[in-house]
Amino acid sequence: MRVLPLKPNHKRIAAYHRSLAEFEKLGVKHESAVRAAFQALEEHSGEELSLSKVAKAVNISANHLSEKFKQVTGVKFVDYIAQIRFEKAPDFLLNSNLRISEIAFEVGFQSLSQFNRVFKRLSGKSPSAYRAVRLKRKSR
Predict the structure, then answer these.
(1) Which long-range contacts (CB under 8 A, 24 or more apart) does 57-60 make?
(2) pTM
(3) Contact 60, 92 (CB under 8 A)
(4) Cβ neighbours for 126, distance < 8 A, ≥ 6 positions apart
(5) Taking the domains of the chain in order of start, what are their residue ranges?
(6) 72: nearest Cα among 35, 123, 126
(7) Tens digit of pLDDT for each residue in 10-27?
(8) Rounded CA separation 41/77 (Å)
(9) Contact predicate 55/62, CB 8 Å
(10) Which tens digits make up the pLDDT trace of 51-79?
(11) 81-139 in CATH: which number?
């Protein structure tokens, strides 16, 4: 079985670049709120985050932030958070002796089942299968 390395998420990169153009369509208040939300997500992705917490921090309603975030990025707020957290996991899987459950919580997931589900959806493999195959290849 051949395992391809994880590729940078092109959807996320495209969403970011599209967001730059979409920001021009938003009002100044909303533009700054969505930018602040992006920054908060990047800086605090390992912490417990929710739409309502981020919305409160950037002084906009949760529903409005959700709508504007999707408008700007093309991605749902929760999917964006999951993507950021997922992107941190391979490094832990390959370069630490932490258990899968410890990695899940370290990168910010609130449950092991959520981590397993997101990891498999985005990489095509479970975290343990990904680790096993990649470490096997690394030891050759």
Answers:
(1) 58/32, 58/33, 58/34, 59/33, 60/29, 60/30, 60/33
(2) 0.71
(3) no
(4) 116, 119, 120
(5) 10-75, 81-139
(6) 35
(7) 555 555 555 555 555 555
(8) 10
(9) yes
(10) 898 888 888 899 988 988 888 778 898 89
(11) 1.10.10.60
